[in-house]
TrEMBL record:
This is DUF4126 family protein. Keywords: Membrane, Transmembrane, Transmembrane helix. The chain crosses the membrane at residues 77-96, 111-131. The keyword Transmembrane applies.
Length: 197
């Protein structure tokens, strides 16, 4: 799988998670960030304890509010706009994670705008699909509403974790530069330390 396809797949997965549960993708990114400095290309503040706590609290609050029948539809502006925003932002962040070549400063492959669009588009599609899922069956049989909500929770969590699992933070591959090549000791005849007898 090419780097671009892999990055855009991550963006689609995490955007879809945000379409189902707006903050869950961001929370998954934060809690799987490697350290306070973050992997190359990733916003360094994602791994800060305060950010992790805030996003965890938001995800938990959304989990509870989603089960309340009085909660407005996610397709209203107050529910849809945050989903699109989180989908776009997390799409960019996950595409950059552990992949410094995907940085917008790279003139050859500016993936960030595309990843953001893919994430927002996936969030919209998932929001529409989730709303239909939650209204079609439960409207006929209200007793299945908790089951439908639980299934959607599992799908949202699986999408977010799958996106993060595809890009577990790690050390970037180190390539030798021209200076390192010239400084590398020679081998064979004439290597430093060899003394003619």
């Amino acid at each position: 799988m090419s780097r671009a396809v892999r990055a855009l797949t991550r963006a689609a997965l995490i955007g879809a998670a945000g379409g189902l549960r707006s903050t869950w993708g961001a929370a998954a990114l934060s809690w799987t960030a490697g350290s306070a400095t973050g992997p190359p290309g990733e916003p360094p503040w994602l791994a800060r304890p305060a950010v992790r706590g805030l996003l965890a609290a938001a995800a938990a609050g959304e989990f509870v509010a989603d089960k309340n029948p009085a909660t407005p539809s996610r397709l209203r502006p107050g529910g849809l706009v945050p989903r699109l925003a989180f989908g776009g932002l997390t799409g960019v962040a996950v595409a950059l994670r552990d992949d410094p070549l995907a940085s917008p400063t790279d003139p050859e492959t500016p993936l960030s705008p595309v990843a953001g669009a893919v994430g927002a588009g996936a969030a919209l599609a998932a929001a529409l699909a989730g709303a239909r899922w939650r209204t079609t069956g439960p409207r006929r049989r209200p007793s299945v509403a908790p089951v439908a909500a639980a299934v959607e929770d599992l799908v949202a969590a699986a999408l977010a974790l799958a996106a993060c699992a595809l890009c577990t933070p790690g050390a970037p591959e180190r390539h030798s530069g021209p200076d390192e090549e010239t400084a590398r000791p020679e081998s064979g005849d004439g290597a430093p330390g060899d003394v003619a007898g």
